[in-house]
């Protein structure tokens, strides 16, 4: 009886720890994929808008990204880290040097008590790197 109880307890512990861990990992991966697509789209749109001198394209691109309810912030900065455009509905304190230090893929960073998948991407104007788009 003791062995059966022990085995049952071990199986229950395994199920209660392993499956939530797998689901969390899959959820993080799904968020990374969405962020990657959004940041590539925004960087491309901003680059084209600046290249053509059409800020309507830049505005439309940012509006497209804002529709995703999971987006906490979008920040566009020039190569010196000076903000060009910002979408920050939760008024998070965005530390630009810190965000630029993150790897271009997704890093999970805490902002005001929430965990955010932060990613950055260089955008170009006429083939010359002109700044960074940061999405979280």
Protein described:
By secondary structure, the protein is α+β, with helices and mostly antiparallel strands. The chain has three helices and five strands, in the order ααββαβββ. It has a five-stranded antiparallel sheet. α1 packs antiparallel against α2. The longest helix has 51 residues. The chain is elongated, with a radius of gyration of 20 Å. The N and C termini lie far apart (52 Å). The mean pLDDT is 79.
Estimate the strand proportion.
25-35%
Question: What is the share of helical residues?
Answer: 40-55%
Q: List low-confidence stretches.
A: none
Structural class based on helices, strands and sheet pairing: alpha+beta
Q: What is the CA–CA distance across the termini? A: 52 Å
**H-E string:** HHEEHEEE
The neighbouring-strand order within the major sheet is: 2-1-5-4-3
Number of helical stretches of at least 4 residues: 3
Descriptive labels:
3 helices; single chain; 136 residues; alpha+beta
Write the layout of secondary structure elements.
Layout: H1 2-52, H2 55-66, E1 74-78, E2 83-87, H3 96-101, E3 107-111, E4 114-125, E5 128-135
Antiparallel strand pairs: 1-2, 1-5, 3-4, 4-5
Produce a short descriptive summary.
With about 140 residues, the protein is α+β, with helices and mostly antiparallel strands. It contains 3 helices and 5 strands.
């Amino acid at each position: 009886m003791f062995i059966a109880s022990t085995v049952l307890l071990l199986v229950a512990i395994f199920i209660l720890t392993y499956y939530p861990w797998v689901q969390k990992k899959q959820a993080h991966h799904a968020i990374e994929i969405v962020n990657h697509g959004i940041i590539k789209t925004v960087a491309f749109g901003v680059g084209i808008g600046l290249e053509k001198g059409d800020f309507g394209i830049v505005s439309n691109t940012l509006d497209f990204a804002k529709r995703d309810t999971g987006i906490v912030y979008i920040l566009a900065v020039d190569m010196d880290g000076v903000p060009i455009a910002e979408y920050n509905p939760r008024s998070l304190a965005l530390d630009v040097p810190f965000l630029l230090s993150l790897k271009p893929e997704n890093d999970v960073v805490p902002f005001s008590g929430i965990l955010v998948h932060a990613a950055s991407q260089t955008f170009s104007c006429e083939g010359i790197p002109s700044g960074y788009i940061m999405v979280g």
